[in-house]
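Saturday, quiet lab. Running sequence design on the structure tokens for the scaffold JK sent over.
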């Protein structure tokens, strides 16, 4: 392939396996219903409802949280409700393996650092040496943030992968008391808006004391219109998908964003190797699905009915 050939090949814009942040946030489509629900709950006067966003894995929960705390879709919620929401995003997977003291202190530091960047305050307050439990340190950090918030403003805390807390308790790393402590923070801090995110497992009885405090919303697959936008928009004017190709991807993925982007990424990669720029058709989609089907632990296991199902469409 010549330098000229490479220059004419569009960059592969589809994202596989990472949440949509930064430049890739432009790939976030649809979800109007979710943001209407978020606005309904976060715009209300008085203490906000705690919220739970749940659904199957790789359905887009983390990307939705990123849009809420830093993306364009969440900007009207953060700044246009008559009060500002100062966001902090925490992925509890990053705290996996931590014991209680470190877990609580790191969680408090993450929240404090992110909120303080938006509303400068003095350094995170410290307790007296040798007389400072992690629970007290966490309370002191949030007390200080709340005290220095402008009137009406709230901290918007998005906690992703909530199941990791129970995993730490079950592994003997975290105290059982961590769960009721977090429940107390959610229940009694009037200037803290909390959005939890995780899988269907959060609906189990084990989580009931905490999850019973929340209003809940199940994140579902994209509809056909949003799926078509996700397929076509990233390469508009450079590489096209015909109607049959869009329909095949829609039926094969059931509107699941990870599977859509994985197939589209593979299709563009195939076009690169073939040095072709003609429209992508249904037969190309099937070729990409068949290629993925033979890979161990590949895309096929994440598609409804398995990758081979596409052969009968």
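Result came back. Writing it out in full:
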């Amino acid at each position: 392939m010549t330098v000229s050939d490479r220059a004419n090949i569009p960059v592969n814009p589809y994202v596989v396996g990472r949440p949509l942040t930064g430049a890739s946030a432009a790939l976030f489509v649809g979800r109007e219903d979710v943001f209407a629900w978020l606005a309904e709950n976060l715009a209300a006067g008085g203490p906000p409802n705690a919220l739970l966003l749940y659904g199957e894995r790789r359905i887009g929960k983390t990307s939705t949280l990123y849009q809420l705390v830093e993306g364009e879709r969440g900007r009207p919620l953060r700044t246009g409700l008559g009060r500002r929401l100062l966001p902090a995003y925490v992925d509890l997977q990053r705290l996996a393996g931590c014991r209680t003291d470190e877990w609580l202190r790191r969680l408090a530091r993450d929240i404090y650092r992110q909120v303080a960047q938006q509303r400068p305050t003095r350094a995170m307050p410290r307790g007296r040496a040798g007389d400072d439990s992690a629970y007290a340190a966490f309370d002191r950090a949030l007390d200080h943030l709340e005290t220095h918030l402008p009137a009406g403003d709230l901290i918007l805390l998005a906690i992703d992968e909530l199941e990791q807390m129970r995993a730490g308790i079950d592994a003997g790393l975290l105290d059982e008391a961590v769960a009721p402590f977090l429940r107390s923070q959610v229940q009694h801090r009037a200037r803290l808006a909390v959005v939890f995110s995780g899988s269907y497992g959060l609906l189990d009885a084990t989580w009931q004391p905490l999850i019973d405090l929340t209003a809940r919303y199940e994140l579902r697959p994209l509809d056909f219109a949003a799926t078509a936008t996700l397929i076509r928009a990233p390469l508009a004017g450079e590489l096209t998908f015909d109607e049959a190709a869009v329909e095949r991807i829609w039926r094969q993925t059931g509107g699941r964003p990870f599977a859509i982007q994985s197939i589209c990424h593979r299709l563009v990669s195939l076009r690169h190797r073939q040095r072709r720029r003609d429209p992508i058709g249904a037969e190309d989609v099937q070729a990409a699905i068949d290629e993925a089907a033979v890979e161990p632990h590949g895309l096929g296991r994440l598609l409804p009915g398995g990758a081979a199902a596409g052969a009968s469409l």
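Notes for JK: Residues 86 and 118 are 7 Å apart (CA to CA). The domain at 223-312 is CATH 1.10.8 (Helicase, Ruva Protein; domain 3). Ask whether to fix the surface positions before the next round.
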